[in-house]
Amino acid sequence: MMKKFNVVVVMLIALVLGLVGPAAAKKQVPKVDNFIFFVDHSSSMAFSYKGQRYVQFGGVSKIMMAKSLARELNKMIPELGYKAGLYTFAPYKEYLGMAPYTQAGMAPAIEKIKTDYEIYGRLTPMGWGLEDLDKLPISTLSGKTGVFIFSDGDSNRGVDPVAVAQSLKGKYGDKLCFFIVDLSDNKHGQEVLKAIAALGGCNCIELGEELLRNEAARTKFLECALYEWIEDEIVIFRSIYFDFDKYNIKKEFVPVLEEGVSIVQGKPKTLVILEGHTDSIGSEQYNMGLGQRRADSVKAFFVKKGIDASRIEAISFGESDPVATNKTAQGRALNRRCVIKFKN
Hints:
CATH topology of the largest domain: Rossmann fold
Order of helices and strands: HEEHEEHHEHEHEHHEHEHEHE
CATH superfamily of the largest domain: von Willebrand factor, type A domain
Low-confidence stretches: 1-11, 13-22
CATH architecture of the largest domain: 3-Layer(aba) Sandwich
Strand order of the largest sheet: 4-3-2-5-6-7
CATH class of the largest domain: Alpha Beta
Number of helices: 11
Shape: elongated
Mean pLDDT: 89
Strand content: 15-25%
């Protein structure tokens, strides 16, 4: 009878050991290291959009629309470790210097943008504004930078903005991207903005009115500009098993752990998750501690073999997550385990 019992246990453990399955989840990762809100503050932006009062788009003028757009985009930008700032051109002014990005930090800077300013005598040197942006802050930044340009594309003074943007792309290459929020209401402005957007593969462009009207459009625009989704995959490698009330590693499971160490050594970015479990004999508090000791013993094995402890998370589930019934000796044997997972 005992021999039959042992055969059953071995067969069940072998079955569990053979189960390797991925549990994928998506996470956001940044496409750029820095981004800048660059708002056209020229006279043309103070006029109504397409000659009409589009109150539903944030106000009666293009600058009001730009301010509303900045607000709405800021609410949706994930905090992924970017540096960010807010500047205007015509005239060039810093509203928020480059600093670690938070929605709460950007919001008051957006509110400082004036929308009731004198129109007449205020020209639109868009090209000069881009040149100023190059001097500070772009030239001081490291990594990849995206510039959100909120503009109607009009330029009636100074150098050609498309030529300046082209020069900047030549200087920085794919480390500089333009994200165009198109508030143009004439053919010339539309052509200028489209020409800037066409300068590189990492550039994005969308109509301002569409972004204000449609949350899905804002999401798509931000995904084009700032981040992407990748699979954050957790793979169940193997489980090892323990005797009752023990946490020492049994000799028959050493080869399993050595295989795991070898895999992790070959993948420097892979993290290890160790989940300690118990059967239901004993109190919940005791079993939580026992599960932790089991996970810690496996962690100690990995560390001794040269895996950095910072790459390993050891946690306990105690008796709370059984894979088999606790009413039989066979089931309890399967529950006394440490599950080894790899996170890519």
